[in-house]
Amino acid sequence: MTLLIVAALPALRRLSVSITGARRAPNILLITLDTTRADHLPAYGYQLGRTPNLDRLAAGGVLFERAVAAAPITLASHVSLFTSLYPFAHGVRNNGSAALSDKLPTLATALHDRGYRTAAFVSAFVVDRRFGLARGFDRYDDRLETRGRGTTVEVERRGDRTGLAAEEWLSQSAAARQSPFFVWLHLYDPHDPYDPPPPFRDAFADRPYDGEIAFDDSVVGSMLDRLDRLGVLSSTIVAVAGDHGESLGDHGEVTHAMFVYEPALRVPLILWWPGHLPSAKRVTQLVRTIDLAPTLLDLAGAPALPGAGGQSLMPLVRGETPGPGTAYAETYFPLFYMNWAPLRSIQDDRWKYIAAPSEELYDLSIDPREQTNIAPREPGRAAALREALAALEARKRQAGQKGPQSVTAAPMDRETAQKLAALGYVGAASVPPTHAGNSGDLDASSQRPDPKAMIGVFNRLRRANAAVHEGRLAEAEAVARDILDQDRQNAFATLILASSLMEQGRYREAIERYRGYSALVPTSADAHHWMAICQLNLGDRDRALAEESAALAIDPRDSDARMLRGGLLAERGRVDEAISDLEAAIEAEPNKSAFRVGLARILTNARRFDEADREYQRALTLEPDSPDAHSGYGVLLAARGQPDRAVAEFERSLELRPDDDETRLRLAGILAGIGRRQEARTEYARLASGPGTPSDIRATARDKLAELGARR
Ligand SMILES: [Zn+2]
User: Fold this and answer.
1) Average pLDDT, stretch 320-333?
2) What separation in Å is there between the alpha carbon of 587 and the centre of ligand 1?
């Protein structure tokens, strides 16, 4: 990688930025580093990291030593960064169940309005366009990748690939130099699981989290090199910010979201623009990520966001003002996922107060790791900060912020829940029963368990949830039962128990538990969908149909429920209803080949061959290696009297999925029918002796083999 040449800056160069009408506004590259805690970067004093590119940005720019994120939740924090509002003002306090209101201006809409060409390249489903951050971007690239084994949903994208997409856009668009660009690059790699690609995997074998950060640093380096080669680096402001940190076991928290302690809130914040911003400047005062958008707009010479909660940091950088003074942060994750009390915190240059059922106060000047709660010793100071917190929230309400003030806890659609769960957002399907579908009294937090007293329970459930996914079902079941013994109403434990039972094939018991979960969380379409699958496995197709209808009554967008119900309706000859279910599923997710294959099968059975053919073509375009599409298409071709083409499709399908006995049986039948008896015999023989072949197929194969043999 070529080294960046950081412009050496004359020491006393004017710091203020004056952008006159004659001079073009600067380009802006905003890089958000997901899940990156500040004190794991060498630029923040960490000895064990390796981040040469971030180091260089810090050496050539301004580093904020004490930057605080508004929430340890990816979506909430990014929305705060883009709107310059705290979560209580913009209303997005959770991943997945709320989207940013289209009435609030953002950094992207403001720059777009100023004539910027805007593009975003994001790496995780949590910031998918459906959650509202795409507004203001000409291009919002949220294409993701299927990850690893067992995960069938696309949930994240590796940083180098996201970076490459951004670089390609820049290469194409840097030619059009008449207007400046704003690019947001979101890198997600340090989020758990920590599994950096080579060479970082080996170099950081004992500290994979740091390896992920080192990997993302290399993506940053590649991006800066590209800007340099395009000749636009010197006219580009580079801003690097974290969305939240990672607890890594501090206070008993493994990852992030449950607590508002510093490891989860303290994030990197670096601004770089040689010649315009000072170099090697370290700002020690407290600042907030909600101050970043106002700062960038200030540097770009654009007006501030109306109603912004943050402020430009340029006066602070110039030493003219003391900075914002206080920072607020919150997490509603405990409430949304566990029905425990939410946490809110406020800190100033020295003190930090956390509003919880058992309130906390820390003197960060002597206790930066928040080990000694001095709230009981310092009741006056705790009270003052408690009041400051209340005043902050009240002021936002009176200011008539346009954003929703209440917590939105709309039912989450199944796909969203599944994708969040695949990202490790445990229990993502649950919405606390007392808040389902309404905005409740969230200040009555003292009635709920205190997260810090419950973290052990949460960690056990987290491990049990992972155990279900990894097939350690007895272990998951035991943990869930143990927790339910103490807390019968624990929805997350109920869900884990139900899914571990289902995975063990104990469908009746699973149904009972899913029914319990459904009572606790009536907004869950998921519970009904899983009950339908259990009923199907028990052979009760009437009940399965009823459960899918219940799921669709809760969430008509539940495309998996549509798909399954469509199949059940088709079996009963209710073809039109079946087709309309499948069409609804396709409308919801036009790029999912499985739904098109499902529809094509029904159309084939209804002898609507041309339409079926069209759907198979679309399915195969979307997913050329889908064994289901190839085998289904083979069935259609056979029905249309094209046995040779059918054979080719069946063979392709079996290449992709050799243990598909039903397709092999079909292939053998067609081969026999067109006189390719030896090949047919081979396939039947394989089925007749296959140890895993279902007994009915094996019996059929033996009969056919005898028949073919007799006629030899
Ligand atoms: Zn995040």
Assistant:
1) 95
2) 30
